[in-house]
Amino acid sequence: MTKNNDLKPYQLVGPGPVIKDKLESKGWTQEDLSDILDMSLKSVNKLIQNKQSITLDTAKSLSEVFDTTPQFWVNLDTKYRLSLKETEEKSPVRAKSELYTYMPINELFKKGWLKKTNIIDELEKQIMKFWNIKTPQLSFLSISNSAINYRKSSAHHHFDHYAARTWQQMAINSISYFKPKKYDIVKLKKAYSNIHTYTNSDNGVELFLKSLNDAGVVFMLLPHLQKTYIDGAAFMVDDTRVIVYTGRYKRYDNFWFTVAHEIAHILLGHVKNDGDMILDDLYSKDQETDKKEDDANKMANDALLHDKIMEYLNDSLNYLTEGDIYSCAEKFDIHPSIIIGALAHRKIISFAHIHTFSRDKEIMSLIPQKYFIEKYLTKKAA
User: Fold this and answer.
1) d(CA 202, CA 216)
2) What is the distance between the alpha carbons of residues 305 and 196, in angstroms, rounded to a whole number?
3) 3-state SS class at 189
4) Which letter, b or e, does each residue of 69-92 get, where b requires 16 or more Cβ atoms within 10 Å of its Cβ?
């Protein structure tokens, strides 16, 4: 059975052939019509070849000659011209509409992920390069990619699948800015086992990211796109393990838990094949979780000593003081904001308390610029 969307509209003949048929029925020539209409023979010929649009005056004259209505000729010509537009090989408006459907083009312009242009050919070239495809057709994005696992909250009814795929591709493209070392799981496990001590070091962020690099894991900071709700990601391309942080919340504890969670995905073998990717929304309510996420959460909690923190503070939870927090931090050599994050995650206190303990730990200023993808885009634009 043929579906409606498989049908193609018939090609309208236009007013030209109709005029020609009526001339033949009357036994007239084009010269005769030229005289009757007081119109040049060249113009009459163009009308018959559909190369000249019919004006209101011409429509009125033709209606008098062939005993029709002016509206008949206006409608015939208008429908024919519109059909030509619809069947053109490339309509800039239609082409742009499709691109904007599958990608948040204006947001990509603002972030510098695409160079702003109003010329469709230039935009299509950029998009083909972005996706590494030979035609600007993006309908393939409608097909689910089983290698990508989106962990998102069911509360996000406006989650944009296409924007998430675009963000994913930008992360993959950005690997070219780095020179990854050979993956060394022993070095990664060693750094991970001491991650809590890095949180409490003056230059712990920089040192820990260096340890990731030494272990052959690429780290990058790539801002999330609207309606993607991404905190971080872990994926693998060409045997390179990659961790991405978006800075969505820009909290010190958020950085460490997100990084710990994504490393857990790598160590647990959740991203072990080329193309595997996990995108995480870690802090929204009503999470859609699975065993992989539960296991990664548990491993991150253990690495950041959440259970030990809760056990140490258990007797003080009803009247918790700053002294208790600092005492716990000293006991386990961990930053106080990580303790607050652990308590807030269990809804014992609010995340708002973190700012009291992390005023000197603004995470975005602690991450070296070489990890910011924006830096490379700015350099490329210059």
Assistant:
1) 24
2) 7
3) helix
4) ebeebbebbeebeebeeeeeeeee
Region for 27 from its dihedrals, namely left if φ exceeds 0, alpha if ψ lies in -120 to 50, beta otherwise: left
Determine how many CB atoms are found less than 10 A away from the CB of residue 107: 15
- CA proximity to 252, closest of 327, 344, 322, 160: 344
pTM for this prediction = 0.76
Structure tokens at 19: 């005029």
pLDDT tens, position by position, 293-348: 999 999 999 999 999 999 999 998 888 899 999 999 999 999 999 999 899 888 88
Contact 289, 298 (CB under 8 A): no
Element (H, E) at 75: helix 70-86
CB burial of residue 316 (10 Å; 0-12, 13-18, 19+): middle
Q: Which helix (H) or strand (E) holds 149?
A: strand 148-151
CB of 227 within 8 A of CB of 158?
A: yes
Asked if 50 contacts 80 with a C-beta cutoff of 8 angstroms, the reply is yes
Distance from C-alpha of 355 to C-alpha of 340, rounded to nearest angstrom: 10
- Mapping DSSP onto H, E and C, the string for 194-245 reads CHHHHHCCCCHHHHHHHHHHHCCEEEEECCCCCCCCCCEEEEEECCEEEEEE
CA 123 to mean position of chain CA atoms: 16
Give the 3-state secondary structure of residue 343.
helix
Q: Report whether 3 contacts 47 (CB < 8 A).
A: no
Hey, what are 345's tokens? 């995650």
Per-residue confidence at 275, pLDDT binned at 50, 70, 90? confident
Residues 203-219 have pLDDT tens digits of: 999 999 999 999 999 99
| 150 burial via Cβ count (<10 Å: 0-12, 13-18, 19+) | buried
Contact between 270 and 222 under an 8 Å Cβ cutoff? The reply is no
**Tell me, what amino acid is at 306?**
H
Is 87 within 8 Å of 11 (Cβ atoms)? yes
Closest to 99 (Cα-Cα) out of 124, 125, 63: 124
The residue type of 234 is A
- Residue 38 tokens read as 């007081």
Q: Is there a contact between 168 and 277 (Cβ–Cβ < 8 Å)?
A: yes
